[in-house]
């Protein structure tokens, strides 16, 4: 019944959505769902399932409805205060880990940490690393801290609230980082109307767009990277495929050897380079 309603409304992966809604309504895990797909719900469970279904049919992302998602093989809590971590960003984590193989105890800054996905994933694979996870949203930082505790990396990460564009930014986070990672708002304002409903109407707007051309954060980063990074340190940033070349040109002003890397779909989605004084 759930699957048919979702499929009829044009929801992608209707079967998966139905399974997860059923699981949340009846408090079943995935294996239990598979064994009980034809079960008859109790009245209170049926009411809960109907409420969850209505939210999904309105376009609310399944991850927000469930309250959880997975990133880099780890569980994360998510809500409307943070972007939903996506598989493309896992490529940024993989690149970071590749560069950190020879550094046993790096100091890493995650700018715009959101749910904490990047910092937590890196910390889980680099137990000797020290992190500053920075965001202007206190609600996001509270959720990120919760995710760090859930994944047993809370002691590695310091959470700092502030604004990248304020003068006291560098004082807030410190200096001498071995690596800066960032998944900034990179959608141009003019592109927002074309996004899927579940993105533009539910995910935090300030985390999606910079309100301009999608490159505002890159211009700010090249101002602060020389002040934050050790000689030989790295800066890796996610970008939109449509602006990969432009983002690369901006970053090369302070990272002359910066390169553009593609995601698993072959789209140019990451810019990164090494800082040399």
Provide the fold topology:
Elements: H1 2-8, H2 14-26, H3 30-35, H4 43-57, H5 62-66, E1 68-71, E2 74-77, H6 87-99, E3 107-111, H7 117-125, E4 130-135, H8 138-150, E5 157-161, H9 169-173, E6 177-182, H10 197-200, H11 205-208, H12 216-228, E7 229-238, H13 244-251, E8 259-262, E9 268-274
Parallel strand pairs: 3-4, 3-6, 4-5, 6-7
Antiparallel strand pairs: 1-2, 7-9, 8-9
In short:
42% of the residues lie in helices and 18% in strands. With 277 residues, the chain is of the alpha/beta class. It has a 7-stranded mixed beta sheet, with helices on both faces. It has a two-stranded antiparallel sheet with strand order 1-2.
